[in-house]
Amino acid sequence: MAADQPVVLVVEDEHAQREVLAYNLEAEGFRVAHAVNGEEALLLVDEEAPDLVVLDWMLPNVSGIEVCRQIKSRPETRGVPIIMLSARTEEVDRVRGLETGADDYVVKPYSVVELMARVRAQLRRTRPAAVGQQLVYEDILLDSETHKVFRAEQPLKLGPTEFRLLATFMEKPGRVWTREQLLDRVWGRDIYVDTRTVDVHIGRLRKALCQHGGSDPLRTVRGAGYALG
C-alpha cells in the first residue's frame, strides 16, 4: 500500500457493518483503521492520524456525539472530516450531529455507493492529491492522476518520494511540517527511516523544482521543519 494513501477510521460497534465499510473503503484505495467503541476511537485518532472518520452515533460507553465533540474541540484534530452514521431520522438529530461538528450526516440504512461518494467528497477538500485532483501553487501544477508536475508550464522530473513530498506540501501551503510528520505521511508509519532522510529528499525536491530556474518555494523553519511558501 502506498504510504500516502488516505487513512479512514471506521468507528462502528456492529461487526457486519464494520466489515462492509472496511471492504468498500479498501476497494476505493483507502487504508482502514477500526474502532468498536468511543474510547478506542479517541486513541486511534491520535495513533493513526486519520484523514477522515466514519463515526456511528450509537456506541457503547462514549457516544459518537461525544467522540465527535472531542475530536473537533482539539486544535490538532479539528480539521479531520467526520461523517456521522445514525439510525436517527429526525431533523433535530441531524442538526445536533452537525452542530456538534460532524461534516456530514448519513441515515441508516444507507447506500454504500452514496457513502463512498460522500467520503470522496470530503477528501477532495482535505486530501485532494490523494483522490486524483490537480493542485496548483503559484506557477507549480501537480497532477496526481497522471503523476506529472509542471512549473511555469515546463515539465519537471521528480522521483516518487519527491512527488509525494510535493503533494503533501501543496495540499496545505504555508503549513509547517515536522520531519516526523513528513515521515508518517510520505514513508508510512510502519517503516523505520532516519529523519535525516527527509532532509536528503527535501534537497532533491528543491533541486527538481528549480531545474528550469525560478526561486526555491520551500521554506526551512529552524527547529520545526519545512513549509511550502
Fold blueprint:
Layout: E1 7-11, H1 15-27, E2 31-35, H2 38-48, E3 52-56, H3 64-73, E4 82-86, H4 91-100, E5 104-107, H5 112-126, E6 134-137, E7 140-143, E8 148-151, E9 154-156, H6 160-171, H7 179-187, H8 195-209, E10 218-221, E11 225-228
Parallel strand pairs: 1-2, 1-3, 3-4, 4-5
Antiparallel strand pairs: 6-7, 7-8, 8-9, 10-11
Helix pairs in contact: 2-3, 6-7, 6-8, 7-8
Q: What do we call the CATH homologous superfamily of the largest domain?
A: Response regulator
Counting H and I runs of at least 4 residues, what is the number of helices?
8
The total strand number stands at 11
Q: What proportion of the residues form beta strands (DSSP E)?
A: 15-25%
What is CATH's topology name of the largest domain?
Answer: Rossmann fold
- The geometry reads as elongated
Structural class: alpha/beta
Main beta-sheet strand count, sense and barrel state: 5 strands, parallel
Q: How many domains?
A: 2
Averaged pLDDT: 91
Instruction: Please tell me how large the radius of gyration is.
Output: 19 Å
Q: Using the coordinates above, name the CATH class of the largest domain.
A: Alpha Beta
Low-confidence segments, given as residue ranges, are none
Report how far apart the termini are: 30 Å
Q: Strand order of the main beta sheet, please? A: 2-1-3-4-5
Tell me the helix content: 40-55%
Task: Give the name of the CATH architecture of the largest domain.
Answer: 3-Layer(aba) Sandwich
> Order of helices and strands, N to C?
EHEHEHEHEHEEEEHHHEE
Main location: cytoplasm
GO molecular function, one term: transcription cis-regulatory region binding
GO cellular component, one term: protein-DNA complex
Subcellular location: Cytoplasm
